[in-house]
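The protein record quoted in full:

***
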Amino acid sequence: MKVIAVYHNKGGVGKTTVAVNLAAALRIKDHRVLLIDIDHQANSTFATGLMKFQDEEDDDIAGNNILQVISSEDFYPISEVVRPSKEFNDPEIDVIPSHIELVKQQDEFSAFGDLIWQRLHRKLQEAKYDYDWVIIDAPPAKDWYAKIALGTADYLVIPSDLKAFSNSGLEIIKEFVEEIDQKRLQAGRERLEILGVLPSKVSTNFAYGRTLGSRKDEIIRKHPHVKFLDSIIYERTDLAHCLDYQRSVNPWSQPLPAPRSIFRYKARSASSQEFHKLADEILAKTGVYR
């Protein structure tokens, strides 16, 4: 089992889009995949079709989500919290959902975080024969949930739109990873391996495309430690629409959210090919393809 955290401390860089569609791509390639949403905004939970309820009384995620997994040492193993995505991909992926209730626990984790930051890692080890890949959608913050995500993962993918604010955050990510690595080494674990920055939400505008290489070169000059993945995820209409897809139950009712992976929404689109390429590159870089 290999664990990848998808993380950037800036929001709006396509992090959730990358996490859910990478998970879908690996599943289509016949790998057993678990997606973990550890962001209180629960975007990956919504994107995989697990938030179809309209009212709080129908909320079946509260009390049985990632919060319980990391809050309890002896209860809530992975097998009791995991659930399949709904109408998201073919085949579906397994998901540990997130919930807004993560916000309430943040202060407690800040006080006792050193006691629980490896709990998710330990519980995943108990399920290591159930999955080939675990993808963790981390929050766009430098908080305890991000620490847990990076402390759990074997590898890190950093989506970035390569704009100024995203680029300035790369030094912060480097320092954050160094902080996490010290804890990992103290616990007898290996350092987190950064697979690279993934250009995402990149404009298909021809003029922008001509400057993409120079943008990457400029980032490397300013941040010599940064390396890039070869894959690029462009900002395309199909990719935007697949997670916003809605379906009508009948002609008289409001359409209901029915998010799809890019592969279920439009399997032969340019975006689906980009995610196939990303999955293949990650499989190669992690030694699965040799």
